[in-house]
Amino acid sequence: MVFLHVTTDCARYNVDQVVSISVKGPAVAGGRLIITCFSCGRELGSTSAPGVWSGSATIAWRPPQEDGKGYLAIAEVRAKDGSVALRGSCGIDVNSNWLRYPRYGYLSHFGPELAAHAGTIVEALKDFHLNGLQFYDWQWRHHHPLSGESQWHDIANRVNSRETIQAFISEAHRRNMACMAYNLGYGAVDGCFEDGVRQEWALFDDANATHPYHLTMPDGWGTKNLNIFDPGNADWRRFLFKRQAEAQAALGFDGWHMDQLGNPGQKFTKGGEAVRVDERYSVLLNDAKRHVPGALIFNNVGGYGLTEARDSTTDAMYAEMWEWEGQKTYSDIQNVIDRSRSGGKPSIVSAYMNYDRAKQNEGKAQPGDFNLSGVLLTDAAILASGGNHIELGDGQYMLDHEYFPNRNLVPSKDLLSRLKTYYDFAVAYEELLTAREIQPCTAESSIEDLPYSRDSEAGKIWTFARTDGRRTIVHLVNLLSAKDALWRDANGQRQPPQIVTNMKVRLPNGFSGIAWAASPDDGIGTATPLTIVKGSAVVPRLEYWTMIVLEPLTRAHSD
């Protein structure tokens, strides 16, 4: 089957906004294009494009007037004999608040030469339905982010352009994508003391305040040190928040993506008070939300400060995964997502794939490539657990390092195509994956004649369940061919999974209702009805990830 390329004009839609669906593919003599829309597996209706299919068409669709809903649009070109010659699909998100179902991407290059290409770069990200973009290292100085000039050097001595930044923001807003201004919550570059920052606001390595806490930057960067201040100091917060708010207002940002540095161990104030930095996060974040307009997202590096961020007034949870902080396996990532979502906020995961392979390609004339199987398995684990993976940005690039501008690895066309289907799937079934109501549950299922586990174990199918209080969602993640359960696939050696067909799954005891399965791995995300016989259902196919949805019988079903 040849796949159609199906896209929409926006990453997200407001209620009452008309969706423009564009379809491209090979010409089919006498073919007709039909688009059918679905909501959580249920057909809503079909629309036919006028005329004969010639290789491209655009159709307007008005979704139901409901907020917070995801849809799957399946496009088919049918030949004269009625057979399906071409197929493709696309997710559609109707959602007045992007933070209900955040799909986060990034921009990290703001040179003056990019202003003319901003539309093309943002358009590529829109096709993955990224409804929020983190603008990484756009700022002039951490303690004074907005420059009065049209161009400035950032911390790495790169030239950034105000025109380029504003072009990106304008193009993103046209497609209903939010723009978040990255900045550290308690750091300043050299020269800050001449700009009004006070030494007594700093953190120190010793109780005598003789060694200021700082990070040393690489040679050739715009500052030798990144000086670190006490997030619990009210004077520091007033100083930074005023300038952060001014910068966001001047450029049109929609909020602040606040960064931290992870666990530094015990530090001290100028007066000799012992400080645990994470204990200062609550006042930092709540104060930032009061004084800096817009959304607020805070990076919990290795989960450090996660509880404080969850219980504060931040709008979404964001956690950067690191093995030395305990995030080694797929299950470890799931545990972080579960902790993050326990406060009712959505969860975004920063997890840099093929990290060691990327280092091995550093400085080479040609970048390496990402391992498709490693990326898809980690994305499957994150999406099935209810999270979102920030990985795509700068047009058609992917993160391989915590310094976002790095491009030691690039995604192949095949990987990008597979990822588009994953993101379409995440949008189409967002109410079953990332909705606030979706919570872990103890419903147990088993698999006949194949090894399976409730934990992510190599050589087994990982199965776990979620519920919204009415429906039960059983996830199957295929680790049968995996030699380990380490999510990072550091050297890019993850092998494609052993594909399983006609797998018999015993459903949770006592279930009575209808069952259906869906997977992004078929390239479409179609919901397939399952027949239940003696408490078991046969799942047609498992490649990387298949979702089984169990719905209790209602009057509507019985009628």
Q: What is the element layout, followed by pairings?
A:
Elements: E1 2-3, E2 5-8, E3 19-24, E4 32-39, E5 42-48, E6 56-61, E7 69-78, E8 84-94, E9 104-107, H1 118-126, E10 132-135, E11 151-153, E12 159-161, H2 162-174, E13 178-184, E14 187-189, E15 214-216, E16 225-228, H3 234-251, E17 255-259, E18 267-268, E19 274-275, H4 281-291, E20 295-301, H5 306-310, E21 316-320, H6 330-341, E22 347-350, H7 355-360, E23 368-369, H8 372-384, E24 387-390, E25 392-393, E26 397-398, E27 409-410, H9 413-428, H10 430-433, E28 439-440, E29 446-447, E30 452-453, E31 461-467, E32 472-478, E33 500-506, E34 513-518, E35 528-530, E36 532-533, E37 536-542, E38 545-552, H11 555-558
Parallel strand pairs: 1-8, 9-10, 10-13, 13-17, 17-20, 20-21, 21-22, 22-24, 23-27, 30-31
Antiparallel strand pairs: 2-3, 3-6, 4-5, 4-7, 7-8, 11-12, 14-16, 15-16, 18-19, 25-26, 28-31, 29-33, 31-32, 32-38, 33-37, 34-35, 34-38, 36-37
List keywords for this structure.
559 residues, TIM Barrel, 3 domains, disordered C terminus, alpha/beta, Immunoglobulin-like
Structure commentary:
There is one protein chain. With 559 residues, the protein is α/β, with parallel strands linked by helices. It has 3 domains: 93 residues, Immunoglobulin-like (Sandwich); 270 residues, Glycosidases (TIM Barrel, Alpha-Beta Barrel), CATH 3.20.20.80; 120 residues, Immunoglobulin-like, CATH 2.60.40.1180. It has 11 helices and 38 strands. The strands form 10 sheets. It has an 8-stranded parallel β-sheet with strand order 9-10-13-17-20-21-22-24. Strands 28, 30, 31, 32, 34, 35 and 38 form a 7-stranded mixed β-sheet that branches. A hairpin with a 4-residue loop joins strand 31 and strand 32. The longest helix has 18 residues. The two termini are 36 Å apart.
